[in-house]
Amino acid sequence: RDGAEQFTFQAEVNRLMDILINSLYSNKDIFLRELISNAADALDKIRFLSLTDKSILGEGDAANLEIKLWLDSESKTLYIRDRGIGMTKDDLIKNLGTIAKSGTSAFLESMQKGGDMNLIGQFGVGFYSVYLVADYVEVISKHNDDKQYIWASTADGSFTISEDTENEDLGRGTLIKIQLKEEAQEYATEAKLKELVQHYSEFINFPIYLQSEKEVEVPVEEETEEAKETEEAKETEDAEEADEDKDEEGAEDDEEEAKEEVEKPKATRKEKRKDWELLNDNKAIWLRKPSEVTEEEYQKFYKAVSKDYTDALSYSHFRAEGDVEFRTILYIPSFSPFDFYDKYYEKAQNGLKLYVRRVFISDDMKELIPRYLSFVKGIVDSDTLPLNVSREMLQQEAALKTIKKKLVRKVLDMIRKMSETEVKCKAMEEKGETEDKPSEKDCGQYGKFWEQFGRAVKLGIIEDSTNRNRLAKLLRFTTSKSGDKLTTLDEYIGRMKEGQKSIYYLAGTSKEEVANSPFLEQLLRKDYEVIFFTDVLDEYVMGHLMDYDDKKFSNASKEDLKLADKDEVEKKKDKEVKEEFKDLTKWWKKVVDDTKLQAVKVSNRLSTTPCVVVTGKYGNSANMERIMRAQAF
Ligand code: ADP
Ligand code: MG
C-alpha cells in the first residue's frame, strides 16, 4: 500500500500464519466463529465502558451494538463489521502481529502433535484463522482515541498499517475485509454464511445481521417517477443524519411499504432486494427456565461462551435467591484448559463471565471462583451487584463473596453427583445387577472428569479448608487391591480389616515402584490394603487431610507404622529379637555417620528384605524429599 508503514510479524505468529494460509484443513468454517467472537468481545468492552460514561457510545448508528456481515460476490470479498471498541493504531500493531500470546507456541506444538485446528480460539490466536479462507485481509478499525487505520496483510511475513482515507467513516468499531481464497469460494454465498452463524453463533449476545437477497413484494403504483424521487431524497437525508449505509435504508423502506400495503391493497410485483436479516436470537438463555432449555441449546450456548468446540461434560443452571440474587449456568468442560496446570500459580483461567443485569462486566473476576475451580466455564448474571461502578470497586463488593460460596457449592455438587453415579455403577457391576443402572455415558462421566481434573480436586484439598472433606470424597486412588480400577476412600474404609485403625499409604514415582517396595511386605502379608500415591501432589494432599472419617492416614515408609493386630505372643517375641540383635544395631550406629542416621531398630515390618532405611515419624518421607529437591520448595 502506498505510504503505508511496514511491520514484520513476530516469529511464532509468522509460523502460525504460514501454516494457516497453506492449510488444507477441511473445517475452515471456524474462522467465522472466531471473528464473530472477537466482534462480540469488542462490543462487550464498549458496552462496559458506556456504563460509567454514556457518551462513549456516540450517537446514531455508532450506538447500535451489533454485528453485520455482507458479501461482494463479484470480488469474492466478505465483510464483517462490528460497532465494538475498535483498535487504535497501536492496538492493531500489538494485537494483530507483533506480540505473540503465550498460547501461540502452545498451539503450534499441539498442532504438531496432531491437535485439532478447531482449538485455535482457546489458545488466544483465533483471529489468524481468517487465513484459512483468505489470501488477503484488511482490518479497518476506529477507536474513540485515535483516527481510523487500515491493517493489511497477505500473510507473507509482514503487514502494513496506514491511515484510512478511502473507506467509509466507521464512527467506531472494526470492519474486516476478507478476500476469499480460490479454495474457499464456498463462503461467498449468503446461504453458507447464514448456516454458519446459526450453527456457531446462535447465542452471541448481540444481534448479528446478514445482508441477503430476498424476494419482496413491491406495489406497482409506487413505481412512479415521483415516488422514486421522494424515496431517494429521504435516503440522502437519513444518510447524512445518522451515517447509515444504504442497504439498511432499504430495510426500513420495505417496512414502510409493507405498512402501506395493509392500509390499501394494491397490485404488487416481486422484486429481488438486499435486506438485513437477523440471524440469531440474542435473548439471554440463562433467563429462561431450565425446563424450557434443551440439552442441545445448553451445549450450543456452552460453545458460544467457552471457545471450546467439544460438548461440556456437565452443566448446572440455577437461580439463587435471597440477599444476593443471581442466575448462572455453570459448565464443566470435557478437557482441562491447555495451560491449567502448567501455569496454575501464574495465571488464573477466565472461563466465568460476570454480567450485571444482562450487561457483561468481566471475565477476569478472581473473586468469583477459587483458583482450583477456575476451569469452570459459563456465566453469572447478578441483579444485586451495582451496575455503575468500576471493576476495581466491584471486587470489593461483599455480595461477590456470597456468590462465590454458592458457586463453589454448586460446582462441587455437580462433581459429587458424577462421582456417586460412578461408585453406584461400579457396585452394580460387581454384583452383576442391571436394573435401573445409569446409562453407560453417565457411568463413565466421572472417570473422564477425574482424568482431566483430578489434580484440581487435590489442589482444592490443599487450598480450600472449608470444602476439604467434600473434596476428599472425590479422590480416586489405585491400591494394592484395586487392580486396574480406581477406588475411593469410602470404598477403602468399607474394606478395612477388623481392628484396622489407619488408612495405609505408600508414595513413589510409579505404581510398579510402590507395589514392589519392601515397605509393603509386612502390610501385604497381613492382608492390609495400601493406597499407592504416585502423583507428586498426593503427599501434600495427605499433609493437609490428616484424617478421613476419623481414620488417620499412615505412611507405610515412616517409623511409627503400627499394625493393629499384634498379640501378646508377638510382642514378647519382638522383645527377644531386639535383645538378640542389640550388638548389631549398636555397630550399625557406629559405622554410619550419625548425623545422617537417627536410630537403628529391629523391626518386623519386613518379611523377605533384610533391612530398609526409613524416615522418622516427624521427618519428610523419602518421596517428599525427592519432590522438594526437584521443586526447590
Ligand atoms: P483473543 O480473542 O483470544 O484475544 P484473537 O486472536 O481472536 O485472540 O484476537 C486478538 C486480539 O485482537 C483481541 O484480543 C483483541 O484485542 C483484538 N481484536 C480482534 N478482533 C477485534 C475486533 N473486532 N475489535 C476489537 N479488537 C479486536
Ligand atoms: Mg478471539
TrEMBL record:
Residues 218-260 have a biased composition (Acidic residues). ATP binds at residues 34, 38, 82, 87, 95, 101-103, 122-127, 174, 391. Keywords: ATP-binding, Chaperone, Nucleotide-binding. GO terms for molecular function: ATP binding; ATP hydrolysis activity; ATP-dependent protein folding chaperone; unfolded protein binding. Residues 27-184 form the Histidine kinase/HSP90-like ATPase domain. Residues 217-267 are annotated as: Disordered. Belongs to the heat shock protein 90 family. This is Endoplasmin. It comes from Tetrabaena socialis.
